[in-house]
Amino acid sequence: MVSDRNVPYGPIPDGIPEGLEIRNDENVFRAFGFLSGRVQEEVYALYLDTKNMVIGFYMVSRGTLDKTIFSPADILRPALLMNCSSIILVHNHPSGMTAPSLEDLTVTKRMNEACQVLGLKLLDHIIIGEGCYRSIISMV
Known about the structure:
140 residues; alpha+beta; single chain; 25% helix
């Protein structure tokens, strides 16, 4: 598990054990369901090894009611330090709706391109709503 000194923006969420195997987006939703109902947008990165086992995660950004700010470097820096193989992005929509914004799609596309340059895979980008989720990786 990533130690607190590697988690610059906040605490590690409970319920995401090191070594958790991520098989599908439902696994991600179960681990990050705590984001449902939050009043601020929060962005997390989940780092996986070649067997899709969790090797680290952390809160990338906490924003306002309808936006948050971060750069690809904020996500990729820890990925390189952890020597991960792939990344899953997760963020919530305080509105409870899971429809991606134009910015969500743009960020996903940019992250996918940045990961490819570094030989990493962006496996998914999950939006958490009120008791539901949506994968948007296939939309970019």
